Amino acid sequence: MATTKTPRTRAKAAADTENPAAIAPAADSTLYVQSVEKAMKVLTAFDGSKRHLSLSEIAAATGFDISAAQRFTFTLSALGYLLKDPQSKKYELSPKLLDFTYHYLVSNELVSRAAPYLQQLAAETEEATNLTVRLDTDIVFVLRIVSRSVFNANVIVGSRLPAYCTAPGLAMLATLDDAEIDDILARTNLVQFTPATVAQPRKIRERLARIRKQGYSHTEDEYFMGDISTAAAVVNQDGRAIGAINIAVPRVRWNAERDERRFADLVIQTAGALSARRRQEM
Fold first, then answer.
1. Domain definitions of the chain by residue range
2. At what angle do helices 55-62 and 66-78 cross, to 10 degrees?
3. Which of 93, 123, 161, 184 has its CA 20 to 30 A from that of 15?
4. CA–CA dist 161, 14 (Å, integer)
């Protein structure tokens, strides 16, 4: 039976944003602690495709020998971040890891400010509303309010999707300069997830130019078939994205003549309310 991949594992399989080229310069520093990197490799081996991993599976996923894998799993278990089944001897992630998510969410100013706006959007549209941020070539969902007609219940806070073929990702990429966009696209595995996915660098750049002019992005069936999303970027004082607001609608509920302009106006207004004023306007 094939393993069902979550949005996180699908994105990771298509575009591994733990980019070795990005890590290499920092790893040359005398301040870099390789043991921390190795411990994180053990934790990220649990990528959602399997709940439980044996010691040999962890060693294979990380590239460590059995002895090193055993030391790291023992330490992480002692600290409470891994749980070990006494019978199968397999490991799984501990709920203690959610402490990091909790501390991130309660300490993040944008998440706190966006929450009532997303609630208002959800109430007004009766559709799923999201706040995402960019993490290198991906977007990460940091706040999500689902509706009764939610299209994909597997997308949750913490889910990662590629930026180049998602409405929030495109909205955020459109705020960057051309050189930065070229760098991101060069480091992205541009996969054709569906027949509708725009995965050609030239066409993506043309698309971003249009998004800059119209102030919002719109995707249909590009990552998930049947999913339609409209997004606008939340920007800082320099006009660079610090996040994006989007409304996601299942195709069965979509009416293009009625919905696109309406939802575009809503996400533009919401993102604008959360954005900082431009420096030249202050």
1. 7-94, 108-281
2. 110
3. 93
4. 10
Q: Which CATH superfamily is domain 108-281 in?
A: GAF domain (3.30.450.40)
CATH number among 1.10.1140.10, 3.40.109.10, 1.10.10.10, 2.60.40.1120, domain 7-94: 1.10.10.10
Tell me: the pLDDT tens digits for 97-134? 999 999 999 999 999 999 999 999 999 999 999 999 99
d(CA 271, CA 276): 10
**Measuring CA to CA, how many Å separate 253 from each of 34, 56, 227, 230?**
50, 47, 10, 14
Angle between helices 109-125 and 256-274 in degrees, nearest 10: 150
Q: What is the reported pLDDT for 24?
A: 57
Write out pLDDT tens, residues 181-191. 999 999 999 99
32 phi/psi in degrees, rounded to 5: -75, 125
